[in-house]
Amino acid sequence: MKTKIWEMVSDAKVIAIGGHIRPDGDCVGSCVAMYQYIRKMYPDKQVYIYFDEVSKTFDYLTVKAECVYDYHDVNADLFITLDASDIGRLGSAGCYVKKAEKVINIDHHISNTLFGDVNIVCPDSSSTCEVLYELFDERMIDKDIAEALYTGIVHDTGVFQYSNALKRTMEIGGTLKEMGIDSDRIIDETFYEKTYKQNLLLGRCLLSSKLYLDGKCIVSIATKETFDEFDAAPSDTEGIVNQLRIIKGVKVAAFIYELSEGEYKVSLRANQNVDVSKVCAVFGGGGHIKAAGCTLYGDIEDQLSKLLEQIDIQIQDAGL
Ligand code: AMP
Ligand code: MN
Ligand code: MN
Q1: What sections of the chain are H helices per DSSP?
Q2: Which ligand is nearest to the CA of 288?
Q3: Integer Cα distance of 291 and 308 in angstroms
């Protein structure tokens, strides 16, 4: 499989790379790492990355790549999708994936629909960046590639903290760190650092959170009014769900925010062995066992009770 994908890259002239909407550290890191690696190994190829709006925090990565934000067709003969579990998750870039001659789908989501001509989906890997590390020739990983891969691993493992950070993840992290990257800065400035208004928004969401299911589930909802109060945007909500998850006794944390009228983005995080990807699958979403997401449509109170029913089923299935 590893040889096959590099053959496909070698046969292509124009290569497009794309990840999921509202890109996180793993999405940006894996897209930029793949871009840099192809540029280094196959300098004659034209390579582009399709990105939905990327947080400024990741400027140190995106400035080093040819990024397309206005979604015009680059007529790619090969499309490489990274960290995206289905075509819908690719947002506006999805139509170009369908148009491309060949598609390579590289991911680590258990819910991946295997939509590529070649699919490399590793649910046991911490991140798409970890999957890429295994696909790259280690000797060809330079400082720029290492920086991008490290960013993705740090973000998807919560700085090597979550249960998806296994021995191999730590080994890869150590190897990348030795390549002279500014790991402290990546961790501090892209993972922990928050703006003043992000912290105020976090405070408001914690104050308005409510416990359900005998204290086993915590829910916080940020409406348009909540965002308006702090002149904040959905991209300012990063990290809130993790703060909800660490509350004593909580098995599932749900952070919900309004995308537009009647449209709500849900982020779920689980403790112990509750499978929240199954909850999200019921609502057309997906993700990982302990971190998943979906979108709810309609009246939020009705939708919340349906969501809680499914969460309850999974908590009981886990015997908790
Ligand atoms: P989030 O809560 O948005 O940070 O997402 C948690 C995990 O679930 C990530 O790995 C996402 O890629 C995945 N995910 C989030 N939303 C969806 C969705 N609507 N469909 C499929 N996977 C999702
Ligand atoms: Mn992601
Ligand atoms: Mn990921």
Answers
A1: 2-11, 25-41, 59-62, 94-99, 128-135, 143-156, 167-177, 183-185, 196-207, 224-230, 240-245, 276-282, 300-317
A2: 1
A3: 16
Structure tokens of 5?
Answer: 């994908």
Q: Is the CB of 254 under 6 A from ligand 1?
A: no
Q: What is the Cα 50 distance to its own chain's centre?
A: 15
Q: Are strands 252-260 and 286-287 parallel, antiparallel or unpaired?
A: unpaired
The rounded Å distance from CA 228 to ligand 2 centre is 26
Residues 122, 282, 223, CA angle at the centre, nearest 5°?
A: 100
pLDDT tens-digit readout, 10-31: 999 999 999 999 999 999 999 9
For the Cβ of 152 lying below 6 angstroms from any atom of ligand 1, the answer is no
> Nearest 5 degrees, angle CA 175-CA 180-CA 185?
100
Q: Position of tokens 């112990």?
A: 272
Ligand 3 centroid from CA 182, angstroms: 21
List, for residues 253-300, the tens digit of each pLDDT value: 999 999 999 999 999 999 999 999 999 999 999 999 999 999 999 999
pLDDT digits (tens, 9 = 90+) for 197-211: 999 999 999 999 999
Answer yes or no: are the C-beta atoms of 107 and 118 closer than 8 Å.
no
**Predicted structure pTM score:** 0.94
Proportion of the chain in helix, strand, coil states, percent, rounded to 5: 45, 20, 35
